[in-house]
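job 3f2a | input accepted
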Amino acid sequence: MTKQILRDAAITHRECIMPPYNKFIGTDGFEAIYLFSETFSGTNIYVPSPRTIFKECIERRIVDNYNGSNIKKLACKYGFSERFIRGLLLSAGKL
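job 3f2a | predicted structure (95 res):
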């Protein structure tokens, strides 16, 4: 999955970005560094992969882009199996 795909999904579904990483959307430079420091100062942190942070955004994007016959295309684009895509669509009531 490309950085651009993650960015597009995050912009479309900002509310789905897992906390505390959602605090950093829309910030840059000093602002982002300051917010990161303020949020995690004095702690040991684990930073998950971008795919994990934006997982729910990507899943919503997949559901939004389903047209009734593009499961294989969605699976290739987002790097998931067709089985996963079908399960996601089924749970979203699209199948």
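job 3f2a | Helices lie at 3-12, 29-40, 50-53, 55-65, 71-78, 82-91.
job 3f2a | closed
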